[in-house]
Write a structure and sequence with these properties.
Number of domains: 2
Order of helices and strands: EHEHEHEHEHEEHEEEEEEEEEHEEEH
CATH superfamily of the largest domain: FAD/NAD(P)-binding domain
CATH architecture of the largest domain: 3-Layer(bba) Sandwich
Shape: globular
Strand order of the largest sheet: 5-6-4-14-15-16-13-17
Number of helices: 8
Largest sheet: 8 strands, mixed
CATH topology of the largest domain: FAD/NAD(P)-binding domain
Mean pLDDT: 95
Number of strands: 19
Helix content: 25-40%
Distance between the termini: 46 Å
Length: 383
């Protein structure tokens, strides 16, 4: 039996409208639908074909942590630990397998300059309590025999895993629908309607759709929705990333672990695809795939795994990371009653999906802001 939601908006069954069908929008929508809420997800294009579809699916709280992100590490590490239970819950609502893989992640170096940087990051990250193992060149070649023979030492992070983000998206969409949620594709939200300090609903094609709660989870497009007071427009911009995929022999993959190099990362999939990414470009919503970007990614991948030169390119694409001013997510309520934000995840959208879904759902259910996201509200950008 589903738990009856707490009546925090003076209705026995609050109507929730979610703007955006990425991993966060669908994750929260699924959790709320399971609790008995009436949830509608509105998507401007096809479901999830934004940052979620374009991602690589790495759950790398450890090796991606950089100086200045010590506080964010607490959030990403907690969400990383939530993934196994999140997937168990998801499996109760769908038969679609998100292909979670826990082989771990390697970070490698090819020359002395790269080795110095690897040692710096190893010392910094280990000092934060991240569980890392230093490997010499023989040990790393034993783990990945096809690596370039010039590979020097490496760092192995056993807790940094991966999930196939596209299958995850399909699983969340199926679970959401199975729990009673409704998805509306090709419905671009023009504006959010607000009256007397509280949200009233959304406008699509000049038609008003009433809602008690509006969740803004539109990724890099979150700042483009009209109707919000200027001080609570999420300061989120698109950061472009170009990527490509090669097809390996599924029975003889050239890599078994996620591999980070100084200029790219390589993510092997169960179906034999090798994902190579990603550029970091301040180009707005420019979606062009460029020769220079592909050359740079392929050169870095070839330098890492020389035998990829015979592999076919099966896909190229780009996505837009939803990036806030401090590269951290924007989560929780606003000064407008009933308006909730879940955006600005930058490169951590997939990693933070379980924590985002659970904390935002908890807030909507109880009216209390979970301690994990107290410091990640929109108010931190208000002077």
């Amino acid at each position: 039996m589903k738990t009856k939601p707490k009546n925090i908006y003076n209705r026995s069954s609050p109507r929730v409208t979610v703007i955006g069908s990425g991993v966060c929008g669908l994750g929260i929508g699924w959790r709320l639908s399971e609790l008995g809420y009436k949830v509608d997800v509105f998507e401007a294009e096809e479901v999830g074909k934004g940052a979620t579809w374009a991602a690589a699916g790495m759950l790398a709280a450890g090796v991606e942590c950089e100086p200045g992100e010590e506080k964010l590490l607490e959030l990403t590490t907690k969400s990383q630990k939530m993934w196994p239970n999140f997937l168990k819950d998801l499996a109760k609502s769908t038969d679609i397998n998100p292909h979670y893989k826990d082989e771990g992640t390697l970070v490698i170096a090819f020359n002395n300059d790269e080795l110095s940087k690897l040692k710096f990051n190893y010392k910094f990250q280990s000092g934060l309590g991240i569980d890392l193992e230093w490997l010499d060149k023989e040990e790393v070649r034993n783990m990945e025999p096809h690596l370039n023979t010039k590979t020097l030492d490496a760092v192995f992070s056993k807790n940094d895993h991966q999930v196939d983000n596209r299958f995850l998206l399909l699983a969340l969409m199926d679970a959401f629908k199975n729990s009673g949620g409704k998805i509306h594709e090709k419905h671009r939200v023009e504006s959010i309607k607000i009256e007397k300090g509280r949200v009233k609903g959304i406008v699509i094609d000049s038609v008003f759709h009433e809602a008690d709660i509006v969740l803004l989870a539109a990724g890099a497009h979150s700042s483009t929705i009209d109707g919000l007071p200027s001080n609570i427009i999420p300061p989120v911009r698109p950061v472009k990333g170009q990527m490509l995929a090669l097809q390996m022999d599924i029975n003889r993959p050239l890599a078994k672990h996620v591999i980070w190099t100084p200029n790219s990362y390589l993510v092997p999939r169960d179906d034999g695809r090798l994902i190579i990414g990603a550029t970091v470009e301040e180009r707005g919503f420019n979606s062009e795939i460029t020769a220079g970007a592909l050359y740079s990614l392929l050169e870095s991948a070839w330098r890492t795994l020389p035998t990829i030169e015979e592999l076919p390119i099966v896909e190229t694409w780009c996505g837009f990371r939803p990036t806030s001013r401090d590269d951290a997510p924007i989560l929780g309520p606003t000064e407008i009653e009933g308006l909730v934000l879940a955006t600005g995840h930058h490169r951590n959208g997939i990693l933070l999906a379980p924590l985002t879904a659970d904390t935002i759902s908890e807030y909507i259910l109880t009216g209390n802001i979970p301690s994990e996201i107290e410091d990640y509200g929109i108010d931190r950008f208000i002077n």
